[in-house]
Design brief:
Elements lengths: L17 H4 L2 H4 L3 H13 L8 E2 L2 H8 L4 H14 L2 E5 L2 E2 L4 E2 L2 E4 L69 H4 L2 E3 L2 E3 L1
Antiparallel strand pairs: 1-5, 2-5, 3-4, 6-7
Helix pairs in contact: 3-5, 4-5
Length: 188
């Protein structure tokens, strides 16, 4: 590789794009899930997307987790929120132990050439199962609804009809909008 493309000092760094960092999916990640994402991104070298190998047992060791289920849940959450996609499932036989190969959705797949899907941008948090408001979160208790308060400006605050303009003069009338002075004279 030419020295034109190398960083000074030659040290590797990890950059998280602003679109990822500000997404609702990123904000919903738990710490173990963020560490799993950072580990997958650390293993990405610019040419191996779709072949990033990381198994649950290895990730559990990196997380200092007591169980590989923690790592498995972290990878499943990353997949559900759209940060990664499983490119090749793992396999285990007596002769071969193959870790799952992952693809980061923010980059082009280097194996198939598939364009970035960025599924994390479209992820929305699940809606809470809320049936009907109990009134505690409402702005008004409803007792003042339909009641006319003496001295209130009822012309500008109708409660049961469409709002009508107070003035018949158009707001875009040049004489009302663009008044300025030139040489001490008022021009309309």
């Amino acid at each position: 590789m030419s020295s034109k493309w190398k960083r000074k000092g030659g040290q590797k760094f990890l950059m998280i794009d602003g679109a990822v960092f500000r997404s609702a999916a990123w904000k919903a990640l738990l710490p173990a899930e963020r560490v799993a994402y950072e580990e997958l991104k650390w293993r990405y070298d610019g040419t191996n997307n779709g072949r990033i190998g990381l198994g649950c047992r290895e990730l559990a060791e990196l997380l200092h987790a007591k169980s590989k289920d923690t790592a498995s849940r972290a990878l499943a959450a990353l997949q559900e929120k759209g940060f990664v996609a499983k490119a090749k499932p793992s396999g285990f036989t007596l002769k071969h132990r193959v870790a799952t190969e992952w693809r980061l959705t923010e980059y082009r797949d280097d194996v198939t050439g598939e364009l970035p899907t960025r599924e994390y941008v479209r992820w929305k948090p699940p809606l809470e199962n809320k049936t009907q408001s109990d009134g505690s979160d409402a702005r008004s208790d409803g007792s003042d609804r339909g009641r006319i308060i003496p001295g209130a400006n009822t012309v500008h605050s109708p409660m049961d009809r469409t709002v009508r303009p107070v003035s018949s003069k158009s707001q875009s009338d040049a004489s009302a909008t663009y008044r300025y002075t030139i040489g001490g004279e008022t021009n309309a």
